[in-house]
Amino acid sequence: MAASIKANARKIVCIGRNYADHVKELNNVRPKQPFFFLKPSSSILLPNSGPVLRPRGVILHYEVELALIMGKEVRDLEPDDEKGALDAIEGYALSIDMTARNIQDEAKSKRLPWTIAKGFDTFLPLSSPIPKSAIPDPQNAHLWLSVNDEMRQSDSTELMLFRIPRMLSDISRVMTLEKGDLILTGTPKGVGKVGTGDVMRAGVRVGGREIEEGRIEVEVRDGEGPYEFAET
Question: So what's the pLDDT on residue 27?
Answer without folding.
Answer: 76
